[in-house]
Amino acid sequence: MEPEDNDHSIADHPVADAPSPPDEGEETVSVYGPYPEGRERACCIVGIGASAGGLEALQRFFDNVPGESDLAYVVVQHLSPVHKSLMVDLLAKHTAMSVVQAADGMAVERNTVYLLPPAKHLSIEDGRLILTAKDAAGGMSLPIDIFFTALAKDQGPRALGVVLSGTGSDGTRGLLAIKSAGGFAAAQDPESAQFDGMPRSAIATGQVDAVKTADKLPATLIEHAGRVLSRNLPVPAKPQDRENDPLAQIVAAIRSVTGVDFSHYKLATLLRRIERRMHTAGLDSMSDYAALLRRNSAETVSLYKEMLIGVTRFFRDEGAFSSLADKVIPTLLAKRSPTDMVRVWVCGCATGEEAYSIAILFAEAQERMGRSFDVKIFATDIDQDSIEIASLGEYPRSIAEDVSHERLTRYFIARGDHYLVSRDIRRMVVFAAHNIMRDPPFTKIDLVSCRNLLIYMDSPLQRKVLSLFQYALRQSGFLFLGTSETLGDLSAEFHVLDSRNKLFQSLRTGTHRLPRLLVPTVAAPVHRHGDEAMSQAQEEGAAIDEAISTLMRAYVPPSLLVNEQMNIMHVFGEASSILKVPPGEATLNALKLLPSSVSMVVGTALTRAFRSGEEFALSNIPVKDREGLPAVSLRVKPFVARKTGRRFALIVLDPSAPALALPDSDFDFDTDTAERIRGLEQELVSRGENLQATIEELETANEELQATNEELLASNEELQSTNEELQSVNEELYSVNAEYQAKVEELTEVTNDLDNLLRSTEIGTVFLDSGMVIRRFTPAAARFINIIPRDVGRSISHLSTNIDYPDFLKDIERVFRDHTPVERHVPVRGDRWIQTRILPYLTEKNQVAGVVVTFVDVTAAKAAEHRLQTVLDSLPEHVAVIDSDGAITMVNHAWRNFGEKNGAPALDRCGPGTNYLDVCNAEEGTEGEAIARAVNDGLRRILSGDIEQFTIEYPCHSDKEERWFMMHACRLAGLSGGAVVSHIDITNRKRMELRASGRRNGQKKSAPLTAKDPAAGEPA
Questions:
Q1: Residues involved in catalysis
Q2: All domains of the chain, ordered by start, with CATH?
């Protein structure tokens, strides 16, 4: 923020409510600017910025704007440059006002809505709209910021800015410009916006006056505009009774609630902030507002927050921070040991951007030097809320406009819509609440940074604060001020390192005490422990200073401390009898203040002393023009300041001592005088020649500078245009970066999930690339393959295994070659079994990029299978288990025994692995065709789930005997399906049935007597 022109505070000028008309001689100044007579009454102009989702918000906004609101509205959107805009027709249905598309040079009139045309940028000058072509090759732009900034510059306090739904941060900087010009800033409630990026970015600045839904914003804007156009502020020059002064009462109310005294803030700043809060409270009288503050402490806190101007950003004034990084930080670190702490004080840190910026500069300097130092940055501010925000180290993504991409990557962590300051930078900074006007300062500070705080203080308070900084600094410490701030009366106490960027180095030597003027002029409402001890210490310090001054006047001869230019830096002792101020321009040159007979000797002595570096002494020098002082003894001692390397000399002029300790120098007055004159004449001639040459060079340089200045002006315009283009491109890049960041976070979460899944499972898994090189494995795999983490990147063929699987590597190669999975049950040492599966590793495009080998411990399953086999073997029936495809998976001992007794071919046809459905097929016309067809059909119906069980009786005679069997099949429940088939010998039962029916010896190998289908319920 720019400094105020008015350097008065309420301590000098109390202000009361203005009578109407004002008193004679009282200057009445409109804080909103005068309006020429004879011209139509001014109207406020509302700039509205919207992007994605903005159409709905604009419709709701204008649905609630009356036709005679006496405001002008300019709508700026992000429009496609190649499509015709339909906004005129769309918005005309939602307002009684005239809706037009903006044209170049069009005058802005009240009760009219102006819309930005496609492929154009819009600005305003002297109340007229100006259209410029948008560069099609320039990428993304920021049209809302461009118009808002122009609106603030042209209309000042009559500018109103509104940010509606949209993505990104366009409009944020424009609203800050409007606020800086005294205008009104508003934003749509993010909860009601379809896209909350733009409103949230604006609200995050802390400078938005109103946050409401789109339908409630018009009433707020109309009410504020009415106050703006109807109010003037008086600035009387006559002091009044402070007890009846409403401004003094307002300041007192703030002090009583918050403990902060604003009586030494500049008057214009106070009036402007109070005026804004009066608008919000709906009051026109300052006395009424003072009464409101006495009743309502919440409003007092709101006013206090309004007074705290927290406008800051990272690396504000980039040139100043570059100068700090080049001229100060390397000097501080060069002579420090790693254990010697570097102490920095950032006063008025607001929300911490400046403190973190300095911390980043120190981190970069340490990296360049290849050394680590203990850097501690004490960042203080009067506002506790700002300190809490700063301590979090969390900032919106809009900081990318001020922080380079490299610094964002190295010193920040992207998280959602914010950036977090990295842990290493946050460790360097300590935040604390601190009142510079009341609390004691830090000490032994190497660098004090206080930027753009002093400009809001009056001159006495500025002197107090600067004296406090001088006390806080170490010898040769550095001071970093804002570009609009100066040292004032303390200029002689500091060496200027960079006048443009306000970098100074303290020249103080020895102990420096806090001056008495630093004692607060207004007591704080809350007393702190130790105040009496502090006051007593200050009184003792003042007494000691007075005693030292008395001793020097009584016992120290008149002595002068001068620099190389022979200007007096300090006077010790009583020198009034020998020093005399000559008429004309004031000067501190020692040769002009001393008697003429002494000044010649002193000049020669100083020249010799500075040239040789040796002490010079001379006694009984006659004094011609000082009454009562016939002669003095002279002693000149040169020395060099250790920190800065500057040369000084101490001149001792003792009128009481006829002779000094040192032997007199061989000084011949006439000879040395002549030598001095000749030297001066030669120097004069030389300087004359140099001056003439310098004048000629300056004339030439001036012409070159004028030409260069014209080129720079043209270049500056191009750079400004380029900067706008880069900002637009940056916004697009930020969006893409946010998408990438979200994708990276998503992939990180997926990776973490997979890692945890692989660690938590008992399934050993090894991932191989196309060269059989190990890419990844799970801990469980180490039980089957002798593998350790360092084996990642090695070929699996180099490792030994604990499994009995001779064809392991061959099967892997086969899967590589044929892309067909392989599954084996193999034993492991220690009577354990595992299921080994080798599958191809498929990419998203279904291409084979490797192999996945899994090891599942199936020892328990094998044991269960063994127990099941034992149970089946104990049954007398012939039992087989088939899968859902009809293949035999298990048979019992009776089944095998029957096969062996009936010959090897029968066992081969009915053993595990054989498809039983194929076995039950018979060729047409062959014996037993009907039985085979019935069995095959029944089994298929069971496997398909049509029936639960199937039974059939059939003869199976041999050459030796007649036999009958009953086959029973039952479906297995479960996902895998299948069936259990059993054959029961029913020969005895059949024989009994035959005897009972009187039938003897049936024909061998005839059709079955009965075939029962439970589903049909009829004999087959």
A1: 51, 78, 170
A2: 44-230 (3.40.50.180), 264-307 (no CATH), 318-506 (3.40.50.150), 549-661 (3.30.450.20), 762-860 (3.30.450.20), 875-997 (3.30.450.20)
